[in-house]
Each structure stands twice: as structure tokens, then as C-alpha cells.
Design a protein that fits this description.
alpha+beta, 8-stranded antiparallel sheet, disordered C terminus
């Protein structure tokens, strides 16, 4: 690149591609950091920061759940939040990765803010294959000891079932990582099994444990505030 120029721009191998993407983002981060003007006049937007900040690979034992199907994990920190992506085993032939996306952040005040479905899906990069548009009207809902969760279903043939599930956890549900008071979770999981098996990584038995989850806070906050218009 010429001086003065600045260009921005498993069983299955799927989960490995998540780490490769993280390494690519790391390279872009270095480029973008060089491109940003110096001094107090330059205040990068959150979108620019999300593009620029690199992911680092973490030990599977450091993920925020007790997920037995976790194959690999990557993590990055942004101002006021920490993000993990966990690649899950995938025995199906459907295109795309099985993964857990967990975004832990610090919000203003003591109350957990309303969960904005479209905002979170956009922040996560959109709905993954094989799912289409996600809206309040096409979601199914359930609950467990951690609170409510919602999901979409996709069925392929007699055995292959997929879910795209989302939930919000507050400090009343479990101890959250990185001093956060809210954690938003997205699961994309396709299995050779039932919808219940596909949902398992999102539910209390696995999502209720993990690093920093050995005790619960005495402050009870709504685990999932209802989606707002």
C-alpha cells in the first residue's frame, strides 16, 4: 500500500470459519486504526469499532456456558461490552455454522432495558441461514428458570431441525461476566434430532452455568423485557 493511502472497506469446518473471520477482522482492525484521524476530534462510531476491534481465540473452558458441544470460542471487548462467539458441533448437511453469540454489556441505571429484537439481530449481522426475516409476529416463546426465550424453527426432511433462538439474561438470572448487568444471546443450531435438542444450548441446564456463573445476584431484574415497537 502506497504511503498516504488508506483503504477500509468438528466434525464440520463451520466453527473454524468463525475464528478465521475473527482473524480477518483483526487485520481490518489494524488497517482501520491506521486510517482513523488522530486527536480528540476523532470519535469512532460503535459500528466502526465493531469492525475494527479484533476477536481473540479463547479456551473452551472460558466460555460463558457449560456447553458440551462447544468446539471453539472467540471473544472481543468493546467499550462497555464483551462479545463471545462459540462454534458448536454440526452433524447436518445444511449450509452455515451452528453457534452461540453472547453479548454482555453494562447498561445505564439499575433496570434491564427493553429487548429490541430488530436492533439485536442487526447487531449480530442479521439472521443466519436458513432463516429469513425475524419479527415479533413469527416467533414462538417459552420459559425456564432463567426467564423467557423466543425462537424460530426450520425443518428439513424427517430428521433435520434448526432453531434460531434469542433471549436476554439479567443479573437476577445468573451471575454475568465482565461486570455486565445484561447479556443478550443468539443461538443458531441445526441438529439431526428434535426441536428440543436444537434448543438445548439456550436453556437453563447449559446457559445457567459457565465462567462466573457459580452464584446468583440477590438483585432481581427482569430476565427478558418484552420487545418494543
Amino acid at each position: 500500500m502506497a504511503s498516504g493511502m488508506c483503504v477500509t472497506g468438528q466434525r464440520k469446518v463451520g466453527p473454524v470459519s468463525l475464528v478465521r473471520q475473527g482473524l480477518v477482522v483483526a487485520g481490518l482492525g489494524l488497517m482501520l486504526a491506521a486510517c482513523l484521524p488522530a486527536g480528540p476530534v476523532a470519535t469512532p462510531s460503535r459500528g466502526v469499532l465493531q469492525t475494527a476491534m479484533p476477536f481473540s481465540q479463547i479456551r473452551v473452558g472460558s466460555i460463558w456456558t457449560t456447553e458440551p458441544l462447544a468446539l471453539i470460542g472467540i471473544q472481543r471487548g468493546l467499550p462497555g461490552q464483551t462479545e463471545q462467539i462459540v462454534g458448536l458441533a454440526n452433524d447436518t448437511t445444511l449450509r452455515g455454522d451452528n453457534f452461540l453469540l453472547m453479548l454482555a454489556r453494562v447498561t445505564d441505571g439499575q433496570d434491564v432495558p427493553a429487548f429490541r429484537l430488530e436492533e439485536f439481530v442487526k447487531r449480530a449481522g442479521g439472521s443466519p441461514s436458513p432463516f429469513g426475516t425475524v419479527s415479533d409476529s413469527n416467533l414462538q416463546s417459552g420459559s425456564d428458570s432463567l426467564g423467557p426465550y423466543v425462537w424460530l424453527e426450520y425443518r428439513s426432511g424427517a430428521q433435520t431441525n434448526c432453531v434460531l433462538a434469542l433471549r436476554r439474561l439479567g443479573v437476577g438470572s445468573r451471575m454475568l461476566p465482565a461486570r455486565a448487568n445484561v447479556m443478550d444471546v443468539m443461538l443458531r443450531n441445526c441438529v439431526l434430532g428434535s426441536i428440543e435438542e436444537a434448543l438445548a444450548p439456550m436453556l437453563e441446564a447449559r446457559m445457567g452455568g459457565g465462567v462466573g456463573a457459580g452464584a446468583r445476584s440477590t438483585v432481581m431484574l427482569s430476565p427478558l423485557a418484552g420487545p418494543t415497537p
